[in-house]
């Protein structure tokens, strides 16, 4: 009798254990990672072809640009955020009102761009989307974007497509304490006796594509076409035009612009610690501007923690058919600008960066991924000179 009870008990215990093993087990927690970039940009510029005063006058400019970039990854999902403030001090801006050292000398721009990406590891693809907001005293810009990325099965080839939309409202008054709303377009003080434009919106449609191929262990090549279509008010309202006969007007440009560019990139691993990154870019638009740009970055790994990257960039631009300098336009022309960004010029840019990746963590939860210091010198053939200083601190937090 005892043996029968023992046998029944043993069978019941075995059945209980079998059911316990078949109960669903909760999934392990999905690891998450947060990347943080603290950015500071400092830009200095000087020249003597200000479009505010018709192609002559100071172009002295200083921009202080602190920014924060966040990226949080969890499984197949990724959230991102880019935000910052640009504090702009421009001597030529005072000349809109002819009041030097006025409050208009300093301006501020605030921007905020969140984004989201969802990956499909089985199909080796990803979808992304986002929106954006940017505001300054004389404009408000709203944006939206969507993108798609696909890798080949062997991960030797990748394709991306991205669409961006921007709508800019060029009316002034949003940060003025007397209004805090869009009021009017700002034109030079002596030209405010009439309305110069029928529209105050600018819409931009941007289509970006890329195709990259790993040719072999040492070479990667890619092509990057881009098309931009702009419609609306494309002129800058406070840019003066001085005609040959001494009359005065504001800048006038067509209300539609097509831009097409094609970049070809070639990265070459030389062996050891050197990588060459070469870019050749062609540009054309319906304003008559044509340009060609060559850029080289050479990354030299001094040690496992330290990388030096000297850089050089050469650009040659054929100017727009609508451009002419101070008192070179005829008042009978339909479109005219004295903005030297649309002129014929040659530009040389040179500089480099120092990247340091520390081997020790800042703490158990947060550590410094990288420290990057960058300097770039720009010189244009019309003697416009610029200096860019950048500091980027990369932090990372990972939870398992």
Tags for this entry?
6% helix, disordered N terminus, 16-stranded antiparallel barrel, mainly beta, single chain, 400 residues, two-stranded antiparallel sheet
Distance between the termini: 55 Å
Average pLDDT score = 89
Work out the strand percent: over 45%
Number of helices: 2
Helix content: under 10%
Strand order of the largest sheet: 1-2-3-4-5-6-7-8-9-12-13-14-15-16-17-18
Instruction: Specify the overall morphology.
Output: globular
How is the quaternary structure best described? single chain
What pattern of helices and strands is seen along the backbone? HEEEHEEEEEEEEEEEEEEE
Helix vs. strand class: mainly beta
Poorly predicted runs are 1-23
What's the β-strand tally?
A: 18
Rg of Cα set: 28 Å
Strand count, sense and barrel status of the largest sheet are: 16 strands, antiparallel, barrel
Secondary structure: elements and pairs:
Layout: H1 2-22, E1 32-46, E2 61-74, E3 77-90, H2 91-94, E4 106-120, E5 125-136, E6 139-151, E7 157-169, E8 201-214, E9 219-232, E10 240-242, E11 248-250, E12 256-271, E13 274-285, E14 290-301, E15 306-318, E16 345-356, E17 366-380, E18 385-399
Antiparallel strand pairs: 1-2, 1-18, 2-3, 3-4, 4-5, 5-6, 6-7, 7-8, 8-9, 9-12, 10-11, 12-13, 13-14, 14-15, 15-16, 16-17, 17-18
Structure overview:
The chain is mainly beta. 6% of the residues lie in helices and 56% in strands. The chain contains two helices and 18 strands. The strands form two sheets. It has a 16-stranded antiparallel barrel. A hairpin with a 4-residue loop joins β13 and β14. The longest helix has 21 residues, at 2-22. It is globular. It starts with a helix and ends with a strand. Residues 1-23 have low confidence and may be disordered.
């Amino acid at each position: 009798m005892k043996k029968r009870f023992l046998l029944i008990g043993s069978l019941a215990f075995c059945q209980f254990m079998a059911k316990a093993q078949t109960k669903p087990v909760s999934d392990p927690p999905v690891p998450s990672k947060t990347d943080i970039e603290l950015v500071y940009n400092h830009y200095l510029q000087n020249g003597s072809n200000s479009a505010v005063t018709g192609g002559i006058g100071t172009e002295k400019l200083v921009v202080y640009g602190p920014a924060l970039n966040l990226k949080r990854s969890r499984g197949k999902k990724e959230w991102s955020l880019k935000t910052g403030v640009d504090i702009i001090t421009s001597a030529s801006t005072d000349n809109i009102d002819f009041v030097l050292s006025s409050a208009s000398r300093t301006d501020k721009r605030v921007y905020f761009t969140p984004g989201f990406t969802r990956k499909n590891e089985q199909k080796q693809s990803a979808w992304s989307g986002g929106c954006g907001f940017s505001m300054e005293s004389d404009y408000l810009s709203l944006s939206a974007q969507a993108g798609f990325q696909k890798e080949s099965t062997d991960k030797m080839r990748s394709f991306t497509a991205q669409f961006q939309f921007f709508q800019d409202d060029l009316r002034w008054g949003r940060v003025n304490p007397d209004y805090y709303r869009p009021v009017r377009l700002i034109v030079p003080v002596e030209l405010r006796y009439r309305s110069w434009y029928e529209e105050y919106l600018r819409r931009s449609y941007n289509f970006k594509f890329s195709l990259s191929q790993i040719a072999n262990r040492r070479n990667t090549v890619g092509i990057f076409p881009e098309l931009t279509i702009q419609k609306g008010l494309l002129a800058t309202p406070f840019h003066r035009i001085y005609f040959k006969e001494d009359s005065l007007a504001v800048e006038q440009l067509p209300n539609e612009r097509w831009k097409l560019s094609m970049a070809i990139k070639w990265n070459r691993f030389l062996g050891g610690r050197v990588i060459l990154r070469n870019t050749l870019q062609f540009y054309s638009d319906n304003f008559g501007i044509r340009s060609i740009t060559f850029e080289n970055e050479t990354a030299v790994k001094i040690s496992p923690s330290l990388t030096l990257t000297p850089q050089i960039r050469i650009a040659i631009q054929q100017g727009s058919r609508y451009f002419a300098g101070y008192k070179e336009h005829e008042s009978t022309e339909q479109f005219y600008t004295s903005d030297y960004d649309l002129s014929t010029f040659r530009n040389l840019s040179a500089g480099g960066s120092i990247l340091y990746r520390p081997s020790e963590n800042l703490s158990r939860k947060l550590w410094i991924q990288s420290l990057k210091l960058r300097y770039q010198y720009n010189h244009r053939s019309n003697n416009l000179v610029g200096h860019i200083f950048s500091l980027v601190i990369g932090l990372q937090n990972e939870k398992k």
